[in-house]
Design brief:
This protein is an alpha+beta fold. It folds into two domains: 123 residues, no CATH class; 100 residues, Arc Repressor Mutant, subunit A, CATH 1.10.10.60. Helices cover 49% and strands 12% of the residues. The protein contains eleven helices and six strands. Strand 1 and strand 2 form a beta hairpin. Helix 8 runs antiparallel to helix 9.
């Protein structure tokens, strides 16, 4: 069963997941990075460009999902280095530190709160997220084009692309595609018919949405929504 709540860290979400015997629902691209506790280990999930399904799912997960672009300064690594990857936190912060932090979360009465507290302490000592890139995300989420977003914040195309690679793991056009797909899927999850969801999210038509769903996730709208409806 998957559950989430807003984090005390601005823009972040705290989530838990205990997969059932019915299988593990694919994790679709969302422009975000996560710090994850999984059966006693701390992992970092980089930004995805395709659906992710773990080969050997853990029994229990707890995670903090950072807002797009926020994780690299907190974790100390450019997002592009972790694109489509899951790595041990030890690879970034060292084995001793990662083990100590993992043991703290594992031994807590509420691992989700313990992991969130760890993140908050780290964030207090890390540089603040880039407000220009937050503005880019906000504009792309609202349906603005990449060119319009760049003009609005005063960045040239090359500069925006370079900064996007570091913050999001890929260029702004890929981020825009992913955020548009998430808009459509949120509408579908709310019961909006596929064709209307496609139109409201900014696609030419339902076929366009279906092609993007297949390209970015490797699955279909029908398969994804069926899996969602079967979750407890």
């Amino acid at each position: 069963m998957y559950e989430e709540r807003p984090s005390r860290l601005d823009g972040a979400v705290v989530w838990t997941n205990r997969p059932t015997g019915q299988g593990f629902r694919p994790v679709l691209p969302d422009g975000c990075m996560d710090l994850i506790w999984a059966d006693g280990r701390l992992l970092v999930a980089g930004p995805d460009t395709r659906a992710y399904v773990p080969r050997t799912p853990a029994d229990s997960y707890t995670g903090v999902r950072f807002a797009p672009g926020d994780a690299p300064t907190l974790l100390g690594v450019e997002a592009s280095a972790l694109r489509d990857r899951r790595i041990d936190l030890a690879d970034l912060w060292g084995a001793r530190t990662a083990r100590r932090l993992a043991d703290t979360v594992t031994g807590a009465t509420d691992p989700a709160t313990a992991l969130e507290t760890l993140v908050l302490r780290r964030a207090a000592d890390a540089p603040a997220p880039d407000p220009l890139l937050r503005a880019v995300v906000a504009r792309l989420r609202s349906g603005a084009s990449v060119a319009a977003a760049a003009d609005a914040i005063g960045l040239g195309a090359r500069q925006l692309h370079r900064r996007s690679l570091a913050a999001f793991g890929y260029g702004p056009k890929t981020l825009a595609r992913i955020l548009r797909l998430r808009r459509a899927l949120d509408l579908v999850a709310a019961g909006v018919p596929y064709a209307e969801a496609a139109h409201r999210a900014g696609y030419a038509d339902q076929a366009h949405l279906s092609r993007e769903m297949r390209a970015l996730t490797g699955t279909t709208l029908t398969t994804y929504t069926t899996q969602a409806s079967e979750e407890p």
